[in-house]
Amino acid sequence: MTLSAAPLSPHIGAEIIGVDLSKPITGADSAALLELFWRHQVIAIRGQEAGPADFIRFAEAFGTIEPFFISAFNHPEFSQIYVLSNVRRDGKPIGRDGAGTHWHSDSTFVEKPSSLTLLHGVTVPARGGDTLFANMYDAYDRLDDATKAAIDGRRAIHRYQRKEFVFSGDRAVSAIEQTEIDVLKRARLAEDAARVAASPTEARSNKEPDRLQPLVRTHPVTGRKALYLNAEMMVGIEGMAEEIAVPLLQRLCEAATPQDRILRFAWRPGDVIAWDNASVLHTATFTPPDQPRVMHRLTIEGDVPF
Ligand code: SIN
């Protein structure tokens, strides 16, 4: 296999050509894949005929798969896989609906956040359900010197908060979509509260202690500096008055995700993507309820950010 990369946007992401997920990736291809991944930060392998076992084997090329901290929507046969979906069977959701609809890096509220996340588009919508990505090396490099000086060495306070259906990540939402979102949100809030109360792992995750994470992290592989943010879960900055810290965090999140520098990934059936949580923010977007979406999700263990 000879791998090549075609950029998905001017600022982040590449499609990798030459990977077949139904076969193991070995030797030189595995090294080339990792090199392309760290360079492009988000990679997509499009249109794969891959099952859950293929997806798991592919993910293992990047490190050790970790169990997701909530077990409510694990795949029935492959428990490492967390299912995201808006599909319901017999009135019950088959996966987590409306997850990650704000700009974030994954699991910043635990001591060792996931280094990588992978998604497999098992059933993809014809309309909506895109995933957006922003480059946090670029976001840090674009800050003015005064802002860099104000945040270098500082730690943000991350608090796990259940804010499903916030849909704050996608700023390109039409008025019609906003009405659809509001209707869906009202219908789901009570249901969500009932599910959390019944799930020990979800109830426990709501009690996670606050975590302090560097606002600027040094990438463990590339050594580059990157902004490290989570728009809905940062509640302050250590040692800084809340009235200064909260607006500063909001400004950083907005500056990090300008519309003209993000990658909007529109899914096709069988696509697999992987992203680097140490240098990328991502957000899910709205999927209209009449458009079925089933995604398989895996995460790879990470280290304590520094
Ligand atoms: C996530 O934040 O992990 C979900 C992204 C998506 O469903 O598009």
Q: Would you write up a description of this structure?
A:
With 306 residues, the chain is an alpha+beta fold. The protein has a domain at 4-134 and 163-207 and 265-300: Double-stranded beta-helix (4-Layer Sandwich), CATH 3.60.130. It has helices at residues 27-40, 52-60, 136-141, 145-151, 175-198, 200-205, 242-256, and strands at residues 4-7, 14-17, 42-45, 65-66, 82-85, 88-89, 92-93, 116-123, 131-135, 155-158, 211-214, 216-218, 225-227, 234-237, 263-265, 272-276, 280-284, 294-300. The strands form five sheets. Strands 1, 2, 3, 4, 5, 8, 16 and 18 form an eight-stranded mixed sheet that branches. It has a three-stranded antiparallel sheet with strand order 15-9-17. It is globular. The protein starts with a strand and ends in a 6-residue tail after the last strand. The chain binds succinic acid. Succinic acid binds at residues 84, 99-100, 117, 131, 282, 284, 295, 297.
Helix % is 25-40%
Mean pLDDT: 92
Structural category is alpha+beta
CATH topology of the domain at 4-134 and 163-207 and 265-300: Double-stranded beta-helix
Main β-sheet description: 8 strands, mixed
Q: SSE string, helix = H, strand = E?
A: EEHEHEEEEEEHHEHHEEEEHEEEE
For the structure shown, list the relevant keywords:
single chain; 306 residues; alpha+beta; Double-stranded beta-helix; eight-stranded mixed beta sheet; three-stranded antiparallel beta sheet; 18 strands; 26% helix; 24% strand; binds succinic acid
